[in-house]
Amino acid sequence: MVRSIVCIKYAVDVNQLQLDTKSPTTKGAARKISDIDKNALEEAVRIKAKLGGEAIAVTVGPPEAKEALREALALGMDQAYLITDPGFTDLDTGGTAAVLAAAITKLGGFDLVLAGEATIDSFSSQVGPRLAEHLSVPPITYVRKLTIEGGKIVAEQDLEDSYETVELNTPALITVTKEVNAPRLPSLMAILAASKKEIKTLTKADLPLQSVALDSPIKILEITVTELKRRKVIIRDKPVAEMTDELAQTILKERIGV
Amino acid sequence: MTEHKGVFVFSENERILLELVSKGRELSDKRSAKLTCTVVGTLTEELAERLFETGVDVILALKEAPDRFDPEFYCSLLTEVIRQNKPEIVLVGATKRGKELAPRLATRLQTGCMADCIALDIDKETGSLLGTRLMYAGKATAKETCTSYPQIATVPPRVFERKTVGKRKGEIIQIAPPSVPTKVNVKETKKKEIGAANIEDAKVVVCGGRGVRSKEDFKLLEDLAKVLNGQVSCSRPIAADLGWFSEWIGLSGRKVHPALYIGCGVSGAIQHLAGITNARIIVAINSNPDSPIFSAVDYGIVGDLYQVVPALIESLKKST
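^ Those are the sequences you sent over. The predicted structure of the assembly is below.
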């Protein structure tokens, strides 16, 4: 039996995001479950199928983040918790981790806390390791293979130049990479069943956060929209050799390689 | 004002460590403060010399160190060192180890961490550390500061260049290792099969994407790379979903800095583009004219890579 808690983010869909150069804002931007968090959800569902137990999804976000939790339920989560409060709107990674830790403590014990290696929008990979510190469990990050046997976790980490397989006891926090599994698409039946399940809400008052500072020490001073300054010369609709001659001339003119 | 003073640098990767030392020297000078670093393992004389030459004032060295990089050990060690020395700024190399370590340190020290900074400076008025980082997969950059101390920032490889400041001597202080219970046992470490040279240093990168139909077909890309003295790499789906390679170019993988990048059958997902923004010239070959990569290139050829790549090799050969 494994009790897994999966932390997901209702993240800005960066592929769809259009930023106005003058006043860049993500207000009203399309959001979805951060891609790699879906791998974390899938891993929890697979572990539960194999070893039994329970899988719970949690997210800190605005009320609209219920959409992400609804999807998490359709993907096989047993329970879903939205942690939301007007006081949580400006949390940075430190504050988010503190709030998640308080919620997870409130939910009782766990064997595994799972999350994606990074979120698609901010990609800072901070919440996982910070959360592990709050929960006083070891973080095992960038895991591409995960097995649990007899209360022991065996995880293969993807580091820059090597793969390292580690073994440890539960409880632990694991962040997974995209390679760990291929997330399922929920069936229509699962979507219907999920629409009837309850999404529970926790607010600041429900959580043991009295002595925790949630103010963000990180201040964003300026956001600049990236402007692509590329030449965008597209060669097309000509015989292949003609196109490649043209490109070769250009490359050689730039005095690269050769 | 803060009682914190000095710049502290850490990375388990020697190359990034030296790059950070160079930047750390500049920041230290602006703050009229000392630059301190700790190394992983036991300090060799050669490394000490290189660190001093690159601008370090003080090296904190362990008498005895674990044989391998133990995250728990270094997290405790650095927490202790930082608590005692109270630096104003802490720079950590943004390797995967470093990206795990820095937020843990920040949590223990109750401070903020600016992740993956691509530029660092000191605010002239406040004296605070300013970090610039990519947001939304590179669609924007944010300039941030941290109002608590130490101000922690992680920095990816090759953001800063190592510059030596000439022969000079510094101080080496012995420190005691923390006693940390081992919760995690390492069962196996497998070296990745990575080309002899580092893709991040390649002057020319030929990159294959989903348009390349089999692992064998990468031979075609190898041939092109050979003509240009370049190296071959791939996009994440090729490495992750198909498993043909163990590393990839992109936001979550390697960030390359070539003079020339040629994407073959690469669609140009923004996560991939974030890994090639530092290429001087971006070229793409793709059969789909609506492929997003064409909006990010200097030169593009709309065509089947299986015809275009061999023809390009011929064109390059006859032109030289």
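The first strand of chain A starts at residue 2 and ends at 7. The domain at 2-206 of chain A is CATH 3.40.50.620 (Rossmann fold).

Shout if you want it in another format.
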